[in-house]
Write a structure and sequence with these properties.
Blueprint lengths: L1 E5 L5 E4 L3 E4 L18 E3 L5 H4 L2 H4 L5 E3 L3 E5 L2 E9 L10 E9 L2 E5 L9 H7 L4 E5 L8 H11 L3 E5 L14 H6 L5 E5 L2 E3 L7 E5 L4
Parallel strand pairs: 3-4, 4-5, 9-10, 10-11, 11-14, 12-14
Antiparallel strand pairs: 1-2, 1-13, 2-3, 6-7, 7-8, 8-9
């Protein structure tokens, strides 16, 4: 069983026998509550405050923090980092961004971080067969909703979870999830959940909009 909970922006808790936390923020700096989490593994897509200011809050003595490209296996969890950019100018505006794939219980989860550009076919091939895609959709600092929909259709996951979009309290100037939901192919049925729990992949493609836990 793999479970996913969302804590705003690009912060997720992904758990089975190990717990992976992605891009932890400290809450206060973005207008949300601080995630009350402990992680075995923390992934950081880039060092901007809304993606890395909470690393110490979720870390414990044995926590491994992954913030470089390459492959690492921690506690049976296979993690691969792929270099990309936070903008459409090869990082000249906002720097680099790491895309991570996280393999747990035979399910490959891909976290796009603050991806700021479209992906070419070579990069998509490098990601492999993605089962669950976590994609930014709010624009301004990342790809926008229509771009996220196009990338989703190119990667072709069975489940897609939007992230990094405007919610109540968030003090970051980005848009909501509406453009993404309106642009995505109709084969993805919409579900709203408090938590995503997967024993196996659903037979039909789904976009799962998670409630923010903070």
């Amino acid at each position: 069983m793999v479970s996913l909970n969302w804590y705003g922006q690009a912060c997720f808790e992904i758990s089975n026998s190990s717990t992976v936390v992605t891009d932890p923020h400290d809450g206060d700096s973005i207008g949300l509550g601080a995630p009350q989490l402990e992680a075995d593994i923390v992934t950081v897509s880039h060092d901007h405050y809304d993606h890395s200011s909470g690393v110490e809050l979720v870390s414990k003595a044995a926590t491994v923090t992954v913030e470089e490209s390459g492959e690492e296996v921690v506690g049976g969890v296979n993690i691969r980092g792929f270099e990309s950019y936070h903008d459409k100018s090869e990082g000249e505006e906002r720097g680099k961004n790491l895309i991570f794939t996280i393999d747990l219980d035979g399910i490959r989860i891909c976290h796009l971080g603050d991806l700021g550009h479209m992906l070419d076919s070579e990069k998509i091939e490098q990601l492999g067969d993605v089962d669950v895609l976590l994609t930014p959709v709010g624009g301004n600092f990342t790809i926008d909703g229509s771009e996220a929909a196009e990338i989703t259709e190119e990667i072709d996951p069975q489940v897609v979870v939007p992230m990094h979009y405007k919610i109540n309290g968030l003090q970051v100037p980005i848009s909501g999830s509406e453009e993404f939901l309106d642009s995505l192919n109709e084969e993805y049925g919409l579900e709203e959940r408090g938590e995503l729990r997967l024993k196996a992949l659903p037979e039909e493609k789904k976009v799962v909009k998670l409630a923010c836990k903070v």
